[in-house]
């Protein structure tokens, strides 16, 4: 079953603002007559590269099968075998308070990468919003955060399939 991963308002605003900012920086560096040489081109390439990397590693949707969870991204899907998952649960928003990014993206096309807080420790996020989150705990102690639109159905479907296929 496929679960959409819609953006929250913060993701929409941050993505829109950064897109406009990046375009303004690129255009401004070429419009400004004082800049010559490779500088503006190098800056444009770097900005486009940052934007592209964020775009291709963003979570698009989640696919739950009887054997695995697939986190679909434009480049390099993440696949997690059902037999590697210890538990799946809805998270209360309080559990994610004071979460900080240790190496990842915090708003441009979503929230993905490495995050941490004092309650859950280290986490890997494949999220498009900061509320209505699902925590997946793996058998090797990793915490993964996903944000399917239908969180309760996602958890229920996973639990049903997980218990039916030991």
Please provide a written account of the structure:
By secondary structure, the chain is α+β, with helices and mostly antiparallel strands. Helix content is 33%, strand content 31%. The protein has a single domain, classed as PH-domain like (Roll). The strands form two sheets. Strands 5-9-10-8-7-6 form a six-stranded mixed β-sheet, covered by helices on one side. β6 and β7 form a beta hairpin. α1 packs antiparallel against α2. The protein is elongated and about 65 Å long.
Name its key features.
PH-domain like; 6-stranded mixed β-sheet; 4-stranded antiparallel β-sheet; 3 helices; membrane; PH domain-containing protein; Bacterial_PH-related; alpha+beta; 166 residues; 33% helix; 10 strands
Characterize this entry briefly.
The protein has 166 residues and is of the alpha+beta class. The chain is 33% helix and 31% strand.
What is the overall pLDDT average?
A: 91
Q: Helix-strand pattern, N to C?
A: EHHEEEEEEEEEH
Rg over CA atoms: 19 Å
Whole-number tally of structural domains: 1
> Which ranges are low-confidence, i.e. pLDDT below 50, for 5 or more consecutive residues?
none
| Helical percentage | 25-40%
In the CATH hierarchy, what is the class?
Mainly Beta
Task: Give the CA-CA distance, first to last residue.
Answer: 19 Å
Report the structural category: alpha+beta
Oligomer: single chain
Strand content: 25-35%
Beta-strand segment tally:
10
Principal-axis shape equals: elongated
């Amino acid at each position: 079953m496929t679960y959409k991963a819609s953006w929250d308002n913060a993701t929409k605003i941050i993505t829109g603002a950064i897109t406009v900012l990046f375009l303004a920086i690129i255009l401004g560096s070429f419009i400004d007559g004082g800049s010559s040489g490779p500088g503006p081109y190098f800056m444009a390439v770097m900005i486009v590269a940052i934007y592209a990397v964020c775009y291709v590693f963003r979570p698009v949707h989640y696919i739950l099968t009887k054997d695995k969870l697939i986190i679909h991204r434009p480049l390099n899907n993440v696949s997690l075998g059902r037999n590697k998952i210890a538990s799946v649960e809805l998270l209360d928003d309080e559990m994610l308070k004071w979460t900080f990014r240790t190496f990842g993206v915090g708003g441009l096309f979503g929230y993905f990468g490495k995050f941490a807080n004092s309650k859950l420790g280290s986490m890997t996020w494949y999220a498009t919003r900061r509320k209505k989150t699902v925590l997946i705990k793996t058998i090797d102690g990793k915490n993964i955060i996903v944000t399917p639109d239908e969180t309760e159905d996602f958890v229920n479907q996973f639990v049903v399939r997980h218990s039916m296929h030991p």
